UniProtKB/TrEMBL annotation:
Organism placement in taxonomy: Bacteria, Pseudomonadati, Pseudomonadota, Gammaproteobacteria, Lysobacterales
Protein name: Aldehyde dehydrogenase
Ranges in coiled-coil conformation: none
Ranges for domain Aldehyde dehydrogenase: 22-480
Keyword flag NAD: yes
One Pfam family cited in the UniProt record for this chain: Aldedh
Entry annotation: catalytic residues: 251
Keyword field: NAD, Oxidoreductase
Length: 484
């Protein structure tokens, strides 16, 4: 048996052990066993990281954008060089199929770094002339030290989505990846040293949320917090940050609808995308459509085609090329998802396919696998249709006409993303405009342009990431008015 991989914090340009010498176990979900140890850091490590970031911040802010961009691009090159290793590590850490990590997670991490490297050099200035009397121009200056806190579902993808704009805009960063999937962020820390980032510009502190995350959020020198994770944690962060008047960006949970109208083009490719929108990454993507609303006139036919495709999805060893779904990220999450399915049954839901854990033979016999599950017969106000499950579970809900579709779609406390499927362009625009979600996809899903505003409304989020929204978040505008 090989010794577990031991991860380190990145503080002040060096790999460092946690000051108290404690570690957390990191599990490989596909086999249900420990494979790594991650620093169980505490407030002392956070203090050291923030102090290092504070020392680095003035020089980094004064570094020309072009040079900051060069370093981000160098880091992207290194991630690309190590793409296969990182993909295997991501898969091992999270349970997702290695194919998915290779085609989605790691390439997207590269794209995030490259995108913000380009964006910062292309960011136009703003000026407001006052009819010959005066001219205003706006400086957008870095904030100083900022915190980036990310979740376990798309570990390197979401980690880089935050640190890239923060660094590009000239801030020094203290980042905290999820303790559930810390491995690729730790590896990125090593690559940042290799890329030549100045000491203290990027710091990565591992550990438990309530310990390290909370210390980071409360730290007096941390000027802004960019958080992605659950709504419950987002609320705790907002409560801690509000009295200190910190800038906050919160990307949180969802209960997203996918709406299929009777006039939708249900080609094979579109049906495949609708299936993928529910089950990609085992349903552990905040953008997955977990409520599938189907117009009643096509409900039975659609259900048949849909179930046929869902039943064909293969759950298995994440290393196997044939696996469409891997393991759920942890035993705790496996227990949560299976309990949600049980509750749906108890509440009168009819499980049309899946509904159980899956036993995978061989090395994955002790892994945490759940079959893709489709449930019908529950009203929209049921717990199953209101609370985020964040697993491979989709409910089918029939509707009659546009108004009812919109009412059901909006009938949730969340508002992250919706997708709708129709051949009627007028309807597409009309419905999209009425959906109370930050993102609406028409006849597609997860088609992402990194320039667009990304985020949710209601309990799904505050603020937007992506493009100039992220650069604005990570800078303070200062207006300068000159009398002419
Ligand atoms: P989580 O809230 O448990 O943890 C997210 C991060 O916050 C982790 O790094 C964790 O250690 C840290 N944390 C926990 N408690 C903290 C505290 N008190 N102070 C500071 N930091 C703390 O979320 P998770 O289980 O890792 O991720 C799943 C959730 O993330 C789901 O709800 C999902 O919808 C959401 N998510 C949202 C988006 C989006 O863009 N809106 C994207 C991905 C995931």
């Amino acid at each position: 048996m090989t010794a577990p991989l031991t991860l380190a914090n990145l503080i002040d340009g060096r790999q460092q052990e946690p000051r108290a010498g404690r570690y957390l176990d990191v599990f490989e979900p596909a086999i249900g066993a420990v494979f790594a140890r991650c620093p169980d850091s505490d407030a002392a490590d956070v203090d050291a990281a923030v102090a290092a970031a504070q020392r680095a911040a003035p020089d980094w802010a004064a570094t020309p954008a072009e040079q900051r961009a060069q370093l981000l691009n160098r880091l992207a090159d290194l991630v690309e060089r190590d793409l296969d290793d990182l993909a295997r590590l991501e898969s091992r850490d999270s349970g997702k199929p290695v194919q998915l990590a290779r085609s989605l997670d790691i390439p997207r991490a590269v794209a995030n770094l490259r995108f913000f490297a380009a964006a910062i050099t292309q960011w136009p200035g703003e000026a407001h002339p006052m009819d010959g009397r005066a001219i205003n121009y706006t400086l957008r200056q870095p904030l100083g030290v900022v915190a980036c806190i990310s979740p376990w579902n798309l570990p390197l993808y979401l980690f880089t989505w935050k640190i890239a704009p923060a660094l590009a805009a000239g801030n020094a960063v203290v980042a905290k990846p999820s303790e559930v999937t810390p491995c690729t962020a730790a590896r990125l820390g090593e690559l940042a040293i290799e890329a030549g980032f100045p000491s203290g510009v990027l710091n990565i502190v591992h550990g438990n949320g309530p310990q390290v995350g909370q210390a980071l959020v409360e730290h007096a020198q941390v000027k802004a917090i960019s958080f992605t994770g659950s709504t419950k944690t987002g609320a705790a962060i907002a409560a801690a940050a509000a009295p200190k008047f910190k800038k906050l960006s919160l990307e949180m949970g969802g209960k997203n609808p996918a709406i299929v109208f009777a006039d939708a083009d249900l080609s094979d490719a579109n049906l495949d995308t609708i299936v993928r929108s529910g089950f990609a990454n085992q349903g552990e993507i905040c953008l997955c459509g977990s409520r599938l609303l189907v117009e009643r006139s096509i409900y039975d036919d659609f259900k048949e085609c849909y179930l046929e495709r869902v039943r064909a999805l293969r759950v298995g060893d994440p290393n196997a090329a044939a696996s469409d779904l891997g393991a759920l990220v942890s035993k705790a999450h496996f227990d949560k998802v299976t309990a949600c399915i049980e509750r749906a049954r108890t509440d009168g839901g009819h499980v049309l396919c899946g509904g159980d854990a899956v036993r995978v033979d061989g090395r994955c016999a002790d892994g945490w696998f759940v079959a893709p599950t489709v449930i019908e017969g529950l009203p929209n106000d049921s717990v199953t249709n209101q609370e985020e499950i964040f697993g491979p579970v989709v409910t089918l809900i029939p509707f009659d006409g546009e108004d009812e579709a919109i009412a059901i779609a909006n009938g949730t406390g969340y508002g992250l993303a919706a997708s709708l499927w129709t051949s009627n362009l007028d309807r597409a625009h009309r419905v999209a405009a009425k959906l109370e979600f930050g993102i609406a996809w028409i006849n597609c899903w997860l088609l992402r342009d990194l320039r667009t505003p990304f985020g949710g409304v209601k309990n799904s989020g505050v603020g937007r990431e992506g493009g100039v929204e992220a650069l604005r978040f990570f800078t303070e505008p200062k207006n300068i008015c000159i009398r002419l």
